[in-house]
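Hey, resending since the last one bounced:
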Amino acid sequence: MKALILEGIKNIHITDIKTPDCNDTEALLKVIYCSVCRSDAKMWYQGHRDLVLPRVLGHEICGQDLSSNEKFIIWPASTCNTCHYCKNGAENLCRNIHVMGFHRDGGFAEYIKVPKTSLIKIPENVPLEIVCMTELLSSAVNALEQLDLQKNQDVLIFGGGPAGLMLGLACKYFGAEPFIVEKNSEKLKQVTPFCKKANISVSDVAASGNFDAAINAAPDPDTLIAGILKLNPGGKYCFFSGFTKSADIPIDLLNEIHYRQLTLIGAYGSTKRQMELALKILETNPQPIKLLIHKIITLENVPSVLPDILFGQTLKYVVDLQKCE
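The structure tokens again:
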């Protein structure tokens, strides 16, 4: 089968590899679509803490079971199922987690082997080209649950890329009011149709007043400073995107955490339950998601789009694995 293999930093190519063999706990899926995540671009450009090379990238996957013809999205992790985190519904924190596209081969291939426990059946009314973005939406759900987001709370989101837009969509589902800040004028034009469709406020500057929560869907550490300054007393800041450079945080700003009883929270990945909830959100509101797709491409096109994805120049590329050349 054809697969896109990352051999090392900026060393990625298509090659023929053996179709995976499955044991009794695994299913062989024909990959239908796999969307390209910024994490894929980061791994190509600089590697990743959890990346094991060589690797077939891709963790936003939908596919078809060859034995039953059923279609599934894939929760991309496998865990020990015995530790404290797994037993308490936080399996994304399992110390023995293995994630497709990081520790084990992912979806930029014609076929993939998947733990049967990771399969989530796709409702027939959901378009397959958008369903692979459920994984990104599930990460947004995890962030909002870490914030314990309440109805009618105001949420400031830094970054109008796909992650920021998914966070906004999830906020609306939970009954909160998101406000997205996107400073790049070209990106702002790109995301405006989505925001109008989803009834989400977006601008190149934050709205006046303060917010109950702030989330960074952008890698600039200045969003931490800006977010803390815009929080109400008792507000919460969620680290959703890792910073790409060191942050020089003034002591006076850190003291604001003390004086106003602010809370800093991390969010990483998602659980299978959150993935199932994300699919429900997507099923009830598919039209904005369609506006996230910049272009549907073939596997051969992936290397050429990675730079644009890495530097936030575009929305989502979705790879059609039914069109391997």
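The two ends are 11 Å apart (CA to CA).

Sorry for the duplicate.
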